[in-house]
Design brief:
Keywords: Cytoplasm, Disulfide bond, Electron transport, Redox-active center, Transport. Has a glutathione-disulfide oxidoreductase activity in the presence of NADPH and glutathione reductase. Reduces low molecular weight disulfides and proteins. Belongs to the glutaredoxin family. The protein is α+β, with helices and mostly antiparallel strands. The protein is built from four helices and four strands. Strands 2-1-3-4 form a four-stranded mixed beta sheet, with helices on both faces. Strand 3 and strand 4 form a beta hairpin.
Amino acid sequence: MKTVTLYTTETCPYCRNAKSLLASRGVRMKEINIHTQEGKRDEMVSRSGRRTVPQIFIEDIYIGGFDDLAKLDRKGGLMSLLS
């Protein structure tokens, strides 16, 4: 299964929702906290073009935020991207 990278903050409810959804699917996650890891906010903006969290990637495929992840999962696309 591919690794999912999440750019997050500790206070973001959408970040918690994204982690919960991925955990419920048994997905391995690499969490990058943009508040505690220097330079990671700039990295996130460079990769996604967005300044809000979470920003989610499956390997090098940009998924978007939590709403995008949830929509992909509802349509059955999440697990196929991960395999």
